Amino acid sequence: MKNFKIYALLAVAIFITSCSEDDKVTVLVQETVGSGAILRTLDSSGSLDMFNIASTLSFTIQEQDAEGGDLLDRVEITGSFVDNNGDDNSVSGAALATITASEFGETEELPSFDYSITLAEFLTAVGIDLTQVLPGDQFVVDMELFTTDGRSFKNSDTTGNVSGGSFFSSPYQYTEEVDDGIEFDITDVNANEISLTNPNMDYSVMIAIDDGNDQTLVETLNIYRAFIDRSVIDDINLSEEEELFATFNIADLDITDGVSSLDYLITLADLYGPNLTFDDLGVNDEFQLRYEVVTADGRVVTTDENDTEYYRAVFVTECIQLNADAPFAGEYTINFLDSFEDGWDGAFISVSIDGGSAEDFTLETGGSGSSTFTVPEGATTLLVTYTAGNFEEEHTFTILDPNGSSAASGGPFIPEGEIIILVCE
Questions:
Q1: What average pLDDT does this structure show over 241-251?
Q2: Contact call for residues 206 and 187 (beta carbons, < 8 A)
Q3: What are phi and psi for residue 61, nearest 5 degrees?
Q4: Opening angle at CA 327, ends 322 and 330, nearest 5
Q5: Is the dihedral of CA 323, 329, 330, 333 positive or negative?
Q6: 160: pLDDT strictly greater than 50
């Protein structure tokens, strides 16, 4: 009882000097621990990489009970695989290990043990092949404590303060979500919306892919297109199911510093497809573009919700113009892009307010950058112009209005002269 009494006295002292929830629970549990026992997490580390079967999860666990560890019999560890990708490959409660009392070491005069498991070992235990593991799937480690008097304690026996509190940290269960390890980025070049009232530009994005291994782990980039008709007229629904739209061999893409990139453009005519025209569109209609990466071992990495890593939507909008009579006041942001990543080669954007001296903005070096300008309250005119430089095929821009929405965009081959600024409600 010696160690327990020391912990109880410390807990009472903490309770006297502090009224935090964790402190109260510490006193309560340690004063009544004769009716139970806990596994305290001293350390947990590691992650599971879907491409690396040697990736490892590691734990350091301490056992506490009313007899200073003398009630400890064993800890049984089981593993589960949670399939969150709709293939119904989930597996529950596979045996991983049994740690008997004699195998425990000691930390702070209480029994403790270290446990680690590789992805390869986990896959063998649950009977899952590596190719069935996708981002968002989960591996779950459960630990159940058995005492010499025949009782057992597991995750379902704990409260939130015991399982997650700062003192006990005794969840008995550890969940690791699988990450694909692929850096996939889509950067808008144009506004990438379709306006019913303003001039439109082709859909244009810059795509970057980095698997950390010069793309030896990934093989194919697929792009799928669908159309959602939300402005159905006369009960005629023009929606179109998702279909494969384009395919690229990732090995054929340009690669710089380990990152593969693609300047991807879809003309409006191609985006509409053979069955739709501009006149068929209505406000809030939506073109859906889903990107997917196929790995070298045949796995498909993707998402299916707008503004997630692999998914973009192009909405049909209607502009109620806020700057029809006078400039809209506030701070505007110019986002510059250069596909060769060496600056704008002498090109620049000029801004003049109320006929004053023009201020010039450009991308001095690199592939991207931004500048801001502010239109004051009461301004009567705003003139934004573009002056060309060399290598015009490299230059694109987007101007964001004070509300963060696109007010103008262009490129490559931006026409010289005035850039029309449209601030919409």
A1: 97
A2: yes
A3: -125, 140
A4: 90
A5: positive
A6: no
Q: Is the pLDDT of residue 193 over 90?
A: no
Q: Mutual orientation of helices 2-17 and 21-31 as an angle, nearest 10°?
A: 150
What pLDDT, on a 0 to 100 scale, did the predictor assign at position 158?
62
Q: Can you say whether the dihedral through the CA atoms of 244, 245, 248, 253 is positive or negative?
A: negative
Instruction: Read off the pTM.
Output: 0.65
DSSP run (H or E) holding 43:
strand 37-46
Tokens, residue 328: 């809209």
Residue 60: its H or E element: strand 56-65
How far lies 251's CA from each of 209, 256, 295, in Å? 11, 12, 12
> What structural domains and CATH numbers belong to the chain?
2-177 (2.60.40.1940), 183-317 (2.60.40.10), 330-418 (2.60.40)
What are 90-139's pLDDT values in tens digits? 999 999 999 999 999 999 999 999 999 999 999 999 999 999 999 989 99
Are the beta carbons of 145 and 129 closer than 8 angstroms? Answer: no
First to last CA, the chain: 71
Q: What are the tokens at 302?
A: 């993707």
